[in-house]
């Protein structure tokens, strides 16, 4: 089925958004398993001109895909917004077709965003993919992300696996979070799983105000303001979130403050006030533009 909503599918899925790892790609087709009313459905989608060719035609599947790829967002209106700002107008053409890649599973986004901190896109996506393959439910060649309660049965590291299992040689321990390359983030992931199993109802977060949701996510150990905003933007579709780190600070400083040194919290505050409901998209376009246009290399010097 052709879905007539303009998108650059490859760019969107491979843009490093912390909602999830990129979907499996074979040729020009991207695919993944998506749960609909708790039942697994294989989604396959490919570029057809500027639109999409989707392997499903039922309303629930189309609605789910529309959400994940944010297909109802009016890109043309957003480009007019960018073009009305001298600092941003080059991004509308450079990033054309880039959309939010939203999480089918918000808890996966929580863990992915924790894993992305001080980490490369290649490494965190590999780690999350391994977690899915080791402890998620398998459907054909795909795996869902484990539920928060499932993490209680996952060993933290080699030492815990050795002490609590029947393995006689610690060198053979490879069935634990740290074996997936998450490093020091493993305890944060476990604590997140405990919080979202026992204390925080993850389904209530989208119903909260942004400030209440932000304060709730900050309760997770290992989650600072930048990671919290990534979780809110990519996991729960809070578009006023403006994830800010040293790189966004440099970009915003270059574009709006003549290179003046300003703090990351001030950059976050500026982004949210300046861009409002467009803040999440502006940050996404800003970062992609800086990374691929050469601006980021310039700002390193």
Give me the secondary-structure topology.
Elements: E1 2-3, H1 9-13, E2 24-26, E3 29-36, E4 39-48, E5 51-54, H2 59-68, H3 75-83, H4 89-94, H5 106-116, H6 121-135, E6 138-139, E7 142-143, H7 158-164, H8 186-198, H9 210-217, H10 225-236, H11 246-256, H12 264-275, H13 279-293, H14 295-300
Antiparallel strand pairs: 1-5, 2-3, 3-4, 4-5, 6-7
Helix pairs in contact: 5-6, 5-8, 5-10, 9-10, 11-12, 12-13
Describe the protein.
The protein is an alpha+beta fold and 301 residues long. It is 47% helix and 10% strand. The chain has 14 helices and seven strands. The protein has helices spanning 9-13, 59-68, 75-83, 89-94, 106-116, 121-135, 158-164, 186-198, 210-217, 225-236, 246-256, 264-275, 279-293, 295-300, and strands spanning 2-3, 24-26, 29-36, 39-48, 51-54, 138-139, 142-143. The strands form two sheets. The chain has a five-stranded antiparallel beta sheet with strand order 1-5-4-3-2. It has a two-stranded antiparallel sheet with strand order 6-7. Strand 3 (29-36) and strand 4 (39-48) form a beta hairpin. Helix 5 crosses helix 6 and helix 9 (210-217) packs across helix 10. It is globular and about 65 Å long. The chain starts with a strand and ends with a helix. 37% of the residues are buried.
